[in-house]
Design a protein that fits this description.
Elements: H1 17-25, H2 36-61, E1 78-80, E2 87-93, H3 98-106, H4 108-116, E3 120-126, H5 134-145, H6 149-158, H7 170-179, H8 185-193, H9 197-209, E4 217-220, E5 223-224, H10 231-241
Length: 243
């Protein structure tokens, strides 16, 4: 008859080390990568980094990209407000990004009110968090060539697609143009041809060089904000400093 193996007395010992300490504190001993919130945050950052890498690669194969003639802001950005305004606010944003949409609905209208008062000049960089956003990004610049970037920008955010539902088609984006008063065959061709795809890639590469890893990203007088939703407080502080 086979003998039963003697039970190792060490198996009866209470847990020791970090796991025991964590249990005493009532905390989970799971490593950080097994927490859903940590995984979600990492995926968002990796997604933006992936777009920046793809933008860099595509930029190499597409030349420097065609800079829009109307892009008169810093770095060829869309710009609104007086050139002599004391505060420059730079916004990197994506029309298909839900967080960017939240910023556009809650904070950006207040910034644009300060623009109307001559206190702020706002430069806007059409950016990407995912490649599905490219068609909308290009179309917005095409609208800018027709003098309608800002109404088109507002319309795109007002009719954002649901999360992870793909991209707008060129025909949809052309119809959006009609809704804001663009009736131009040049606009239609620009949208269908992806005329400014290379330029969008270049903007993204520029953003990556400035350290941007998540959108929206906001700079106030050249300083990036850790929390874009605190932009109004930072702008008011910058205005006070000018007095």
């Amino acid at each position: 008859m086979a003998k039963m193996q003697a039970r190792d007395p060490r198996l009866n010992r209470p847990p020791t080390g970090p796991n025991r300490a964590a249990r005493r504190r009532g905390k989970s001993s799971r490593p950080w990568w097994r927490h859903p919130a940590a995984i979600l945050g990492l995926l968002v950052v990796l997604g933006v980094i992936g777009v920046l890498i793809q933008s860099h690669r595509s930029g190499r194969t597409s030349g420097t990209g065609q800079r829009p003639a109307h892009g008169q802001g810093p770095g060829g950005s869309e710009v609104i407000g007086a050139a002599g305004a004391p505060v420059l606010v730079e916004v990197y944003s994506d029309f298909e990004c839900r967080r960017c949409g939240q910023f556009q609905r809650t904070v950006e209208p207040q910034i644009r009110k300060l623009v109307d008062e001559g206190k702020v000049r706002m430069a806007y960089y059409v950016s990407l968090t995912k490649m599905d956003s490219l068609t909308s990004a290009n179309a917005s610049i095409c609208a800018g060539e027709q003098g309608a970037f800002w109404p088109y920008h507002d319309y795109l955010f007002a009719y954002q697609l649901p999360e992870n539902s793909g991209s707008r088609t060129p025909d949809q984006l052309i119809q959006f143009g009609r809704q804001v008063g663009i009736n131009s065959s040049a606009f239609d061709a620009c949208v269908k041809d992806g005329t400014y795809n290379g330029w969008v890639y270049q903007i993204n590469a520029q953003g990556g060089a400035r350290g941007i890893r998540i959108l929206p990203a906001i700079f106030v007088n050249g300083r990036v904000l850790s929390d874009p939703f605190s932009a109004l407080t930072t702008i008011q502080e910058a205005l006070k400093a000018q007095r």
